């Protein structure tokens, strides 16, 4: 207080007490679209102006114009206050997350987006990670956004990062499976009449076998009753816990109880993660009600003792006497509504820039999920 009087006036005004409005005005050349969108959601602005310890991920003007040109339907989003509010809530984090929090070990801050747009306790999450030495935020479908201007601070303990891309609100589980090439699992859930039930859960962790994993046990698929299938699928699901890769990698071995009742053994081998004998080939895909990790093998509740061979490029099936088939099982009539190629990042930062694919997928409206939920 006393010191304030000694400081030149300009310094005080530029110090820690500057308001969100001041940041938006100073960065008007980059943030004018966001500023005008905020005017459509006064309740959210009220929340932001009085909040403490928040971090705003502020999409640039180019981020919004890219979204509009990629998907004209997103214009609908921008004029629908309820949907817009949902999308913007997904861009506000509870807590202070400065740019030093982006490291090769990902973290998963909570956003203000909650039910019905996200059924994740404490708010839907985003992934912060350092990707190719760039501070990167991964959102729904593992679509990336980069931090362009980090660490603008306002009202004391609040942070704002300007980002390159509008974040994608994580879609409902069934929609995410459909659009990330997990069509066998999608079809298997539909066959077992579990799609709606699984979508309606909150806070889940799903281990999702890839289509290749289902193909590898293809000869057995025809002999499974719907009850067998439901048992197998339930053995892939951890209820009431959203477990991201850093937690799964935090111990050499851990046991998790599944919805089906049987236990899974999670094993760490260096930076690799195994579930029973299956390898996690893509981790941390955010969905509306939790997280999905993609596996290279279908888990077998009657073979809980299956162990991996970490040196092998692919794991032997956990079902005995099976042989592979050419066509992905359960995919008849299962048609994706979009194609997303997720960014793959090493699970725990096994070296900078070591990722296999860049996003080439068509990005739908960032808020398609929000528009779909409860409009
Ligand atoms: C901010 O930028 C927009 C768009 O370029 C412009 O219309 C508006 O007048 C600017 N506002 C301020 C306060 O400079
Ligand atoms: C803000 O965060 C700091 C440190 O992260 C914490 O000590 C403080 O209690 C928080 N304040 C509020 C109002 O949440
Ligand atoms: C990684 O960053 C470097 C330097 O910025 C760039 O030249 C390279 O193309 C990037 N690689 C990928 C895969 O984006
Ligand atoms: C900021 O956080 C510190 C502790 O981390 C706390 O002492 C201080 O009161 C906070 N200031 C505001 C304006 O919230
Ligand atoms: C998706 O699956 C199909 C058939 O299973 C396969 O041919 C295609 O390469 C896969 N695409 C991606 C991006 O993995
Ligand atoms: C699962 O593991 C828990 C804790 O390790 C144990 O208490 C329980 O009996 C196990 N359940 C089965 C079906 O093996
Ligand atoms: C959240 O749960 C509600 C009630 O079951 C459901 O209507 C809504 O679609 C769910 N939202 C998401 C994103 O999964």
UniProtKB/TrEMBL annotation:
Segments forming domain FAS1: 18-167, 169-299
Signal peptide (UniProt feature, chain positions): 1-17
One GO cellular component term noted in the UniProt record for this chain: fungal-type vacuole membrane
Keywords, comma-separated and alphabetical: Signal
One GO process term, biological-process aspect: macroautophagy
Domain of life: Eukaryota
Keyword Translocase: no
InterPro entries: Adhesion/Biosynth-related (IPR050904), FAS1_dom_sf (IPR036378), FAS1_domain (IPR000782)
Transport keyword on record: no
Pfam families, sorted: Fasciclin
The protein's name: FAS1 domain-containing protein
Taxonomic source organism: Cercophora samala
